[in-house]
Amino acid sequence: MRDILSFNLRILPNNPHNICCKPSENFREIIQNVAKPHGVSNMRKLGHLNNFIKLLCSIGHREENFGFTYEEIIICLRLALLNEAKEVRAAGLRALRYLIRDTNVLQKVLRLQSTVSILLQSNEGERTQALRLVRKIITVNAMLFPSSIANSLIAVGTDGLQERDRMVRAAIAIVCELALKNPEVVARRGGLSTILKSVIDCQLSRINEALITTILHLLNHPHTRQYVRVDVELEQILAPFTDFHYRHTADTAEGQLKEDRESRFLSSRMAIVAAFRSWSGIINLCKAGNSGIQSLIGLLCIPNMEVRKGLLEVLYEIFRLPVPIVTQDFMEGLLSVDPARFQDTWRLSDGFVAAEAKVILPHRARSRPDLMDNYLAFVLSAFITNGLLEGLVEVVTSSDDQLAVRATILLGELLHMANTILPHSHSHHLHCLPTLINMAASFDIPQEKRLRASAAVNNLKRFHEKKKRGLKPHSLYLDHIIRKSVSSHNRRESHSRAHRDIYVIKDTEEALMMNLRDSHILNHKQNLEWNWLLIATILKWPHVNLRNNKDEQMHKFVRRLLYFYKPSSKLYAGLALDHVKARQLTVVGCQFVEFLMDSDEDGQGYLEELVRDMVSWLSSSSGLKPERSLQSNGLLTTLSQHYFLFLGTLSAHPQGVKLLEKCGLFQCLLNLCSVKNQDAVLKLAVSTLDYSRDGLARVILSKILTAATDTCRLFATKHLRVLLRAGVEFFSSWGMELLVTQLHDHNKAVSMEALDILDEACEDKANLHALIQLKPALSHLGDKGLLLLLRFLSIPKGFSYLNERGYVSKQLEKWQKEYNLKYVDLIEEQLNEALTTYRKPVDGDNYVRRSNQRLQRPNVYLPVHLYGQLVHDKTGCHLLEAQSVVPDLSYVVRSPMLDTWEGIKQLKAALWALGNIGSSNWGLNLLQEENVIPDILTLAQHCEVLSVRGTCVYVLGVISKTRQGCEVLKQYGWDAVRHSRRTLWPVTPEEVDTQLTSELSSVPSTLSLNSESTSSRHNSESESQPNMYILDDDKCDILDQTDEPSFYSHSKPVKDRSPFTILASSRFVRTRFLNSLSLPSKKLRSTSDPKTPSGSRTPTELKTGSMRRNRTVTEPSVYNRNHCLKKYLTCTTNI
């Protein structure tokens, strides 16, 4: 070691004793010492090799600085690779890796056969350096990769597990990397089979997905597809399911067969799911003939319980559905997968109401396409076409109770999904129900099977009833927010009345006195033994309050309740949150507060006493040490936190607000905003106060948004999304301003959350108008801020605002140069995050914090596109037409360059741009004028690059947003869903009678509610619905989430096409929904291919040639209101 240190002092360039030496002289000394066979110790050689790297990094890779040629240096370093000391050999490999910087040097290294010694490495240190050198070769030029090294890597990957080789995963990873850049050298040496074998060996989801995605990537492009034998190699991942005697290795001991089989099931399940997450995997597994999907579905009919259980788990994961618990009770299994069931992230100490509302309350998007719907619709249609539902019926009727429960729930989920996201022409999914009914009614089958079929029919009916009730809030806090969003005249009637009808309410004084006695509240002070159902009935008794009833018994009744609920008594406040009567006691407490408010001056004294006691309890934590704060005093675990619901109930009434102000509640909350360790208190305050009126509640919210801790500011910002989705009145007039303020928060998480909420809020025109009026600064928020600013262009007011500042012309130039390509990256990254284990790094950091908790049903709403916003107005369409945007994009579509990834990306960018242009009737006219839609359809059916097909079908889905777009695509045999995303039970076109049409047509015109010009009024789907009608519809959507019929008023039921209510067979409709699943045999010429003889015409041209027409920008035809619903094409996916 002393020799090395002294050598470092003498040879390093920054040593003052050696500062006059030229780099060439230092190189000469290093090379000479490394090449000497004798007289130089191995430790000195190791030091020379390390200093060679330092000197190389300091002077660069200019050959004139070396004093030697690259060949001479390589020959000398090659001697180090043959040294007897493993440390010197490892240092020689490291030096060689640093020397290779470009293809020229790599060619010289390979020509001198310096890499042969890599094959001889035996110890871990050398192998690590060897693998790093191999990766360097791949990085510099994978096409020069030596076949000898490929053989070694593949050998380690194939047999490494049996030999317990620690480098096996690294070797397989390098083989995958090499397969992406030089598939030929891997395929010819059996490397692809090694990758697929490793898939079945791996039970780690991220690694398993990376392995199978390598194969799917090769299948995507025709140049690399030739290396994969699809029928043999890809379907290896199905073998653990399809081969009942499957053994991964022949030497597996008999005692380990069961454990080995379970691990292979897990690996195969991961690989199958990953394959169905990509376009190339779907096409190859769903192709015509003996396909993988047919093999899987066929296994459901074979009475092998182990295989059936594994396949059900595969299907649940493919369709992004939570797997029910193992149980024989259907309702227990159904409740275990209820999205509204309690989750740990809903606790007060975590995401609380903001996290719950994001699951329970629907997104504000109406006409904005969700690309996940397209993906799921295609996969679902493929499975249904191949007999999945019939297979599930067989599982239900011939399996044990536990499997039957899981299969029944899956059958119900898929029927509901098909009814929602598949076009009505695909109603053949209803045929499984007549089959089930026939089995339940037939006496020609075994009794056990008949009874199971009958039970399944009843369970599906219960499943349907639960779906019709919708999602119900779990917490009283979210329920409180939703109730406050109901119009004021229904507030008194909006409290929970789950048990109201148990006792018949008689509007007589005798009946009231009898109920007072039966409630036991006057007889004894054992509070929990009181009849709380009767107490709730008395508080809701018509025309009963302290003003009308001066009886002493009524006052005694009130005083007993008051004492029970006062925080100082510690009766109610001391109960645990999970107490069996906790929810009931809190609901009665809220009713008690409203009862006192309705009693005018007779109840004001009692109410003021209660409020002052609550304020005193709340202010007790202000200014105290953290260990004495409310959080440490039972707030997180007792019913004391529900006092905020009482205060929130008061804040929803004008007289209640006056009382709260009189008792000093608002000032107390303002003081707590600046006190540390009060996060839970502020969360509760934010979640319960009423913001529908301008007053101190909004002041407190604003203070918390700006002055509280980072955690509280983030929660308060997220709560604005809750208020937005709940439909709080006049959100556009005050909520948008608060969100704009949050854009400038110093915490990036807060500003990004506010930006995301603003993006959702702008789905409503009123909010968009309010945002334009505020004129926010968005340039500091990067690309997401730019996309939000582009939304201004969708309405005339915003277009004028940006156009006056020259913003529109600048953006048109930027999008044509770069942003169209960046849009492809943005949208595919979102799809990757939704469909795979990929997670985008935050702030440019390569490290991503990962969680095993996967999103059950992520949404990928179509990002904003410049062209898509411009076509919502006649002026924007004129601008695109003047700059010949559509002809230029159409040329790219008709003459694609599919040989390079850059050309493929250009094609995808053009497709997305055309799709966004076609998202409105104005823009669709531009596409029809250019007649580019047939070319997009040709690519969707026959493009040799499979991911381009997925992009095309997504684009067609965007085009089908409008009724006009649906009709155009229908002419070519492509069906689209023609109902709103929020319409759970859509009416079929055949069932739309004259009465319904007249009812829908009588909806008020948008002209009086919309400030936009008449010419653009009917341009887009979202604008054709009247704002007032939308608000009412939103409220109905929210109110339908409860199963308590007296809770809210419901709209008149509409006749639906639910699969559960239709038992007769339905007709089949010929479509191209699953057209062209087979791989292309040859490249088809575009309809505009210049090589096509002028005298001949393609079939597409013969069909569509007569449709080409000249177009002038005029107002599109107005259509009936019954068509004013969002439409989107549902077909397939693009990874």
TrEMBL record:
A single cellular component GO annotation: TORC2 complex
Classification via Pfam families: RasGEF_N_2, RICTOR_M, RICTOR_N, RICTOR_phospho, RICTOR_V
Organism listed in the record: Sphaeramia orbicularis
Compositionally skewed regions (Low complexity) per UniProt: 1005-1017
Domain Rapamycin-insensitive companion of mTOR middle: residue ranges: 507-726
Domain Rapamycin-insensitive companion of mTOR N-terminal: from-to ranges: 46-423
Domain Rapamycin-insensitive companion of mTOR: 904-976
Listed Polar residues bias regions: 1087-1103
Protein name, entry field: RPTOR independent companion of MTOR, complex 2 a
SUPFAM superfamilies: ARM repeat (SSF48371)
Similarity comment text for this entry: Belongs to the RICTOR family.
GO terms for biological process, alphabetical: positive regulation of phosphatidylinositol 3-kinase/protein kinase B signal transduction; TORC2 signaling
Chain residue ranges for the region called Disordered: 997-1027, 1081-1108
An MF annotation (GO) of this entry: protein serine/threonine kinase activator activity
